[in-house]
Amino acid sequence: MLVYEYKLDGSKRQFAAIEEAIRIAQFIRNKCLRLWMDGKNVSKNDLQTYCAVLAKEYPFASRLNSMARQASADRAYSAIQRFYDNCKQKKPGKKGYPQFQKDNRSVEYKTTGWKLASDGRHIIFTDGCGIGRLKLVGNKNQSIETFPIKDIKRVRIVRRADGYYVQFCVKTERKVEHIPSGRQLGIDVGLKAYLTDSLGNTVPNPRHYRKAENKLKRLQRRLSRKQKKSANRKKARKALAKQHLKVQRQREDFARKVANTYISSSDLIAYEDLQIRNMVRNRKLAKSIHDAGWGTFIRWLQYYGHMHDIPVIAVPPHFTSQNCSACGTRVQKSLSVRTHICTGCGVVLDRDQNAALNILDKALNGTVGHTGTSGQDPQNASGDLTSAAPSKRRSGKSSR
User: Fold this and answer.
1) In this structure, are residues 339 and 348 in contact, taking their beta carbons and an 8 Å threshold?
2) What is the pLDDT of residues 110-135, one digit of tens each?
3) Burial zone of 104 (CB within 10 Å; 0-12 exposed, 13-18 middle, 19+ buried)
4) Which of 53, 104, 222, 363 has its CA 20 to 30 A from that of 175?
5) What single DSSP character describes residue 124?
6) β partners of residue 186
7) How many CA atoms lie within 13 A of 170 on its CB side?
8) Any alpha helices (H) in 206-350, and if so which ranges?
9) Which residues are catalytic?
């Protein structure tokens, strides 16, 4: 699935209509969830059928396109199914019991309720919400009209801090001809350096959040001083949200470029299968770990690996920094010790490069956690993907 995204240009009336469509989508999802919570053993088809009942019972719900209502029901069913899957897999901790949505930010259409204008630069929504014709603002070289309409399986309107966007989910296979380089790399992610590979190359940590932290604090204080429910508070809240969105996009863009560079110049990539959600329980390092965005980088690494058709291998992180990459001797060291000095063979290496060499060795010798990916674009915000259930260990990084 390939996702094309454009910003929408319209009037205040049209944006108010989009908000109404988003609220109806949230209402449908929550009502479907309530049906399941009331003890009904419902299937996906039952929830889609229930949408027609809701449209008759609530006149405002009938204004939303019927397939958009079904897409909202599908979201509820995905949350229910994910909960059951986590229970069956005995996922540690919370199983993700479905919750009612309070601030839904998107509405999804399937193959009806919209159409592209003949110029390929406008989209027209034809259901009863009254959204109408909207201009698509984006890269002029990115032409959604070049795809057959039958290949566009989803059209999703998303509200963000800086406006409204439309996403076209196109069913297509994206493959890149990979030029073999003969390089096999292990990658060790970190906080001092964003990552270090097995050849000793490092990528500096950009620390996007840390650089924007003073501005974010200032905007947050400005928001706190405004009177509640006032127009000035609304403006201050929007300014703060835009700054957070900017940091998020900087982190995403950086991770994407680094992942693409490594995948296109290597024939095999190995990385640690870290349990990041457990690692951020460390109060001293949580903010820095979130700022680094390792999870985003790994998702893009897997995506580009699938595109280039090269193996991207996750290995267990146990003792990758403690063991010597040359002779295997275990040399205990704290996180503050940044140089590996082996007591067995005397080799001296940077701590992170030593870990990267061990990660690569584990991948080549078959000590593998999992390989391969779904190949879906990490920017796809449909929420259909569920991550694999993490193991019961806290993390390999904390013992390093």
Assistant:
1) yes
2) 999 999 988 888 999 999 999 999 99
3) middle
4) 363
5) E
6) 270
7) 16
8) 208-225, 231-264, 276-279, 286-292, 294-308
9) 188, 272, 352
User: Following DSSP, what letter does each residue of 40-89 receive, concatenated?
Assistant: ----HHHHHHHHHHHHHH-GGGGGS-HHHHHHHHHHHHHHHHHHHHHHHT
DSSP annotation of 389: P
End-to-end CA gap in the chain: 38
User: Across residues 319-336, what is the average pLDDT?
Assistant: 87
CB 261 within 8 A of CB 271: no
Cross-strand bridge partners of residue 22: none
Q: Say which range, 4-18, 22-36, 118-132, 366-380, has the weakest mean pLDDT.
A: 366-380
Residue 242: the pLDDT is 96
* DSSP β-ladder status, 193-197 and 202-204: antiparallel
Q: Hey, is 398 helix, strand or coil?
A: coil
Hey, what amino acid is at 339? T
Q: What percent of the chain has pLDDT over 90?
A: 65
The Cα 297–Cα 303 span in angstroms is 10
Three-point CA angle 14, 20, 23, nearest 5°: 145
Neighbouring C-beta atoms of residue 187, cutoff 10 Å:
27
Q: Which DSSP state fits 268?
A: E
pLDDT of amino acid 392: 32
Helix (H, G, I), strand (E, B) or coil at 208: helix
What tokens appear for 31 in the block? 């009502």
Question: What is the SS3 assignment for 30?
Answer: helix
What digits encode the pLDDT tens for the residues 359-393? Answer: 999 999 875 555 554 455 666 544 332 233 333 33
Identity of residue 94: K
Average pLDDT over residues 45-72: 94
CA 25 – CA 74 distance, rounded (Å): 11
